């Protein structure tokens, strides 16, 4: 076990799969006390079991629907009661976005659920956790934008997803402004295409759109959750105390060319 995050209490959302799972396991391996959550209890429990098997246990509250304020409060209360503070909040959870072009997207069943599942849940977690982050006197919020916070896609109809991730990108800058006086840093990671549950569901890795993205990377491969988790370790650690209001492209170089 390494100790880049030793002594830090970290709230991590979406630990059941993909990037959130990778972050939870990597944070625990780096010495953090992880309090995770997920809407899917079975997958969250699998992550808890994997962490225990690795000898770096994590805690989890599940099921927690982060679009439901009472659920968010119940999860954050665990950190408050046990530790009285949180040094890190990682908002990795998001729903798989609804895909439809502008002239076909249904407001109630596609647009609104995507915005709620990508943006509202970040707001709820930040607001509920804010007093615990203030109490840490040196905390880090890590939110997930995307390459598609800054560009559209020729291959996927991701109008609502672009809106959601653009919102996370910009709101995180304002969180950095508001958190500054309390020592709260806030940054986004903007992943490229990462092999996760969500992208597998969408048929991306190995599919035509995934192959196009892979060809655009400068390193010749798609990402895996640990590629992203290492960036989150840095942002959560004391190595990054001068880093706030920034956006980190972790995308195999896709945005560079
Ligand atoms: N995978 C990629 O290529 C990629 C690219 C850019 C950005 N991102 C972003 O990274 C983050 C993680 O993506 P991923 O691909 O690992 O997703 P994923 O679907 O593989 O995992 C997301 C996890 O969040 C949980 N979750 C979903 N809605 C929830 C809710 N309402 N309450 C609690 N838990 C909930 C799911 O159950 C799941 O375990 C997301 O914000 C996503 O938008 C991913």
Architecture overview:
The chain is an alpha/beta fold. The protein has a single domain, classed as Rossmann fold (3-Layer(aba) Sandwich). The protein has helices at residues 18-29, 41-53, 69-83, 107-136, 159-179, 197-201, 208-216, 225-236, and strands at residues 9-13, 33-37, 59-61, 88-91, 139-144, 184-191, 247-250. Helix 2 (41-53) links the parallel strand 2 (33-37) and strand 3. The protein is globular. The termini are far apart. The mean pLDDT is 97. It binds nicotinamide-adenine-dinucleotide. Nicotinamide-adenine-dinucleotide binds at residues 14, 16-20, 38-40, 43, 64-67, 92-96, 117, 121, 144, 146, 191, 193-194, 196-199.
Beta-strand fraction estimate: 5-15%
The overall strand count is 7
What small molecules accompany the polymer chains? Answer: nicotinamide-adenine-dinucleotide
Q: Which superfamily, in CATH terms, is the homologous superfamily?
A: NAD(P)-binding Rossmann-like Domain
- CATH T-level fold name: Rossmann fold
Overall body shape: globular
Spans of 5+ residues with little confidence (pLDDT < 50)? none
Q: Residue share in helices?
A: 40-55%
End-to-end Cα distance, whole Å, is 37 Å
Helix count? 8
Question: How many strands, what sense, and barrel or not for the largest sheet?
Answer: 7 strands, parallel
Secondary-structure element order, as H and E?
Answer: EHEHEHEHEHEHHHE
The secondary structure category is alpha/beta
Give the domain tally: 1
Question: What is the overall pLDDT average?
Answer: 97
Q: Could you give the order of strands across the largest sheet?
A: 3-2-1-4-5-6-7
Rg from alpha-carbon coordinates: 17 Å
CATH class: Alpha Beta
Q: What is the CATH architecture annotation?
A: 3-Layer(aba) Sandwich
């Amino acid at each position: 076990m390494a100790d880049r995050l030793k002594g830090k209490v970290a709230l991590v959302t979406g630990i059941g799969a993909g990037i959130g799972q990778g972050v939870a396991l990597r944070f625990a391996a780096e010495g953090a006390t992880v309090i995770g959550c997920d809407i899917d209890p079975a997958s969250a429990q699998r992550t808890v079991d994997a962490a225990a098997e690795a000898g770096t246990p994590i805690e989890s509250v599940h099921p927690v629907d982060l679009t439901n304020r009472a659920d968010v409060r119940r999860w954050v209360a665990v950190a408050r009661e046990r530790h009285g503070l949180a040094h890190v909040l990682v908002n990795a959870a998001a729903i798989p976005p609804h895909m439809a072009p502008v002239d076909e997207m249904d407001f109630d069943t596609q647009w609104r659920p995507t915005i709620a599942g990508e943006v509202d849940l970040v707001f709820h977690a930040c607001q509920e956790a804010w007093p615990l982050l203030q109490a840490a006197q040196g905390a880090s919020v890590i939110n997930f934008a995307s390459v598609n916070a800054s560009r559209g896609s020729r291959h996927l109809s991701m109008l609502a997803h672009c809106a959601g991730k653009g919102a996370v990108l910009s709101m995180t800058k304002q969180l950095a402004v508001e958190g500054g006086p309390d020592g709260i840093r806030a940054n986004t990671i903007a992943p490229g295409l990462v092999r996760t549950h969500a992208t597998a569901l969408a048929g991306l890795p190995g599919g035509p759109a995934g192959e196009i993205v892979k060809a655009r990377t400068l390193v010749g491969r798609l990402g895996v959750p640990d590629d992203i988790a290492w960036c989150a370790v840095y942002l959560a650690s004391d190595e990054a105390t001068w880093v706030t209001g920034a956006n980190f492209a972790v995308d195999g170089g896709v945005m560079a060319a």
